Amino acid sequence: MFFFTIRRVIASVFVLLASSFLVFALCAASFDPLSKYYTQNPRPPESFFENLREQLGLNDNFFVRYWNWLSGALTGNFGETINGTPVSEQLGGRLLVTGRMILLAIIIAVVLAVVVGVVGAVRQYKPSDYAFTFLAYLLIALPTFWFAAILKEFVAGGVNDVFGKQVLFTIGEETPGLSLYASGWELWSDRLGHLVLPTVSLALLSFAAWSRFQRSAMLDVLGSDYMRLARAKGLPYRRVVMKHGLRNALIPLTTVVALGIGTLFGGAVITEQVFVWHGMGEYLIQNGIGQNDINVVLGWLLVSAVFVVVFNLVADVLYAVLDPRIRLS
To answer: Which residues cross the membrane (predicted)?
Structure first.
């Protein structure tokens, strides 16, 4: 198990290096840091552009620029924004905001996908299976922004009316200024109230697709020879399903979840716009793409790539835990 994990870690490092190269190449071809000066009236003289190119290192060849950026990124230095603010300082705080939403959404989506997928497979073609199938396809068909807007417009108001006070919040990740005088449970309960709807929006849309994979994998396992053999030996059906079937059926879901992290980041960008969260999504749209700031976009894409690679590494390790034969591959 130890050497299996080491091999996967080394492979992940090479994947991350390749990802960083592709990210830098795409951004270098798509963004021009000098573009905002071209439309100024009067237009700056050519000497201004030459000095700025030299200052930003744009006169260096592509590989020198890539190495300078990568060596800085490895030490946590993602360069500066067009306003002169270090990207790492802004990106770190926004990552904490988005990270708690994504991690909680993953946990909720995985738990729901496993439960719904197993119930749907065990009770195939029963009313509960049809109900879960209808719900899953309905959620898959809904656009992210529209589903988030429905939760914001109708669910929040209904829940708040039931409790007679504002329990669920629809704007921001915490009440503005509350952290200046509040602490402990008062502060965390406020953040929890802001966290519920964006997390539910992100989790349910992911759970819908993941539950279909879990149901399909569970159906394949239930029809396998070793499951029938376990039943023939007299083992209780519940024990056969939970101990022997579910463990093997989790392997395909692990793959889907690991590959879906990138999709979650994309969904988080839209969700943050709907709920006005000041996280990585807003940072990418407003500070990166909106201001044509290549360092912001590079930092965002690299952090996203790290998350995808890390979760795929975790998935590889979980494969070996769920099926020991994989360790020998």
So the answer is: 101-122, 134-151, 192-210, 249-270, 297-322
